[in-house]
Design a protein that fits this description.
Blueprint (H helix, E strand, L loop, with lengths): L12 E8 L5 E8 L2 H10 L3 E8 L13 H16 L4 H10 L4 H15 L4 H6 L7 H13 L2 H56 L7 H37 L1 H11 L5 H22 L4 H10 L4 H15 L4 H8 L4 H13 L2 H56 L1
Antiparallel strand pairs: 1-2, 1-3
Helix pairs in contact: 2-3, 2-7, 3-4, 6-7, 7-8, 7-10, 7-15, 8-9, 8-15, 10-11, 10-15, 11-12, 12-13, 13-14, 14-15
Length: 410
């Protein structure tokens, strides 16, 4: 608590400005200061001749701003990398990037970072104020770039890393969505048949006055139950889905069990396995090429693994490497990495081009994932037809079975 009579700290505000640079070009942007006069003084220190300066409140992620997605961060990184590489001053690069973005929340985020940098903070510290958008790996690489004077190089590598990572995530979502789509369509078609079609046959069977076949009776009982309790069935499915989501969100043990289970799934498990190898290689290549020591780089890889099996394996590899063991042997001892990846790492260690070899491994397995997802798409089309055929065919057989039996008796 401040002492009574202590001087109040001046409140910092955001000022929007327009002016000219040293070459007479018109530029504009925002700056943090306490008064208009101090804002103008700060701009003049930066070699800017301000013509207009007015106060404006910063509303980061305000209402209707739209949710900031990882693809937005990837686009921001690529734009910043391009601007800085072209020799545009960092503060101007923020302004130009923000102007090219339509999403208000993302624009406000960029300007908040820019204002922190303009106020004297380095870029890494400014990014760390927004951990929901910039993880430790991102901030650490930016810090390395600032310390080594190679920010443009690191921004380019981070941009490539983010773009490749998001592309890989998109492929994995596509691979996971197809099995879910098959199950959803199967449930939907079966539900419609049981609620709308089977009752029509039930009225016909009521006039037979004979005992129905067991299979037909089972389908009719299921139809009657669904007609009467459909809302309970839907409610139970919603509750079940919500419960599973909450359990996975709150329980690390449940998430670990899920991660191990999905790797054992047919087709999809192989895709997830290869994607984990690609993510491991891409993250390690990016951090190691940025000058991060291998042991520290493996820490970042473990955090970005995306699967408990590969996270634990990476932590074991890190322990082995920290005791002096070569990366290729540590990966082989982990027992989950393919021989091709291990041999490429061995070549990289022997030739002193580990980051380059890891990038090639990542490219190879990303392409493998792409091909497998395309193959899964082709596989799922006949599978959907087969599943629907079995369900619809089974219901048709159940409904026509009493008619067939009646015909044989006659």
């Amino acid at each position: 608590m401040a002492k009574k009579g202590a001087p109040k700290t001046p409140k910092t505000s955001t000022f929007v400005w327009e002016g000219k640079d040293k070459n007479g070009r018109k530029i504009k942007g925002e700056v943090n200061s306490t008064t208009v006069a101090l804002a103008k003084a700060e701009l003049r220190k930066q070699g800017i001749n301000p013509t207009k300066v007015r106060k404006q409140a910063v509303n980061l992620g305000g209402g209707g701003g739209g949710k900031i997605k990882p693809l937005d961060i990837a686009f921001f990184t690529r734009q910043m990398a391009t601007m800085v590489k072209a020799g545009v001053p960092l503060l101007n690069a923020f302004d130009i990037t923000a102007e090219g973005i339509d999403k208000p929340a993302m624009k406000n985020l960029i300007m908040a970072i820019k204002n922190d940098v303009a106020g004297g903070s380095n870029m890494a510290d400014s990014l760390r104020k927004h951990p929901e958008y910039f993880d430790d790996l991102y901030c650490s690489l930016i810090a390395s770039g600032e310390q080594s004077g190679a920010l443009e190089t690191l921004l380019d590598r981070i941009a490539t890393y983010k773009e490749k990572s998001e592309a890989l995530k998109s492929k994995i979502k596509k691979a996971m969505n197809y099995p879910i789509a098959v199950v959803a369509v199967a449930f939907l078609v079966t539900g419609i048949l049981l609620i709308k079609v089977v009752p029509q046959f039930e009225e016909v069977f009521a006039g037979f006055g004979a005992e129905l076949p067991a299979f037909t009776q089972m389908v009719i009982n299921l139809s009657e139950a669904l007609q009467e309790w459909w809302y309970i069935v839907i409610g139970a499915l919603v509750v079940f889905g919500f419960s599973v989501k909450q359990i996975l969100k709150t329980s690390e043990a449940a998430r670990d069990k899920r991660d191990r289970l999905v790797l054992r799934l047919p087709v999809v498990g192989a895709i997830l396995d290869k994607s984990a190898v690609a993510r491991f290689s891409r993250t390690l290549a990016t951090t190691f090429s940025a000058g991060v020591p291998l042991v520290e780089a493996l820490d970042s890889v473990a955090g970005a693994a995306g699967n408990v099996v590969y996270r634990q394996a990476t932590e074991t590899i890190k322990e082995d490497v920290s005791t002096g063991q070569q990366l290729q042997f540590a990966m082989r001892n982990a027992g989950i990495f393919p021989n091709m990846a291990i041999q490429m790492v061995a070549i990289g260690e022997e030739s002193g081009a580990l980051d380059e070899m890891l990038s090639k491994v990542a490219n190879y397995y990303e392409e493998e994932v792409d091909n497998m997802v395309d193959g899964l798409t082709s596989l799922m089309e006949p599978l959907i037809m087969a599943v629907l055929g079995v369900l619809v065919g089974g219901l048709i057989v159940a409904m026509y079975l009493p008619i067939f039996q009646l015909g044989s008796v006659v």
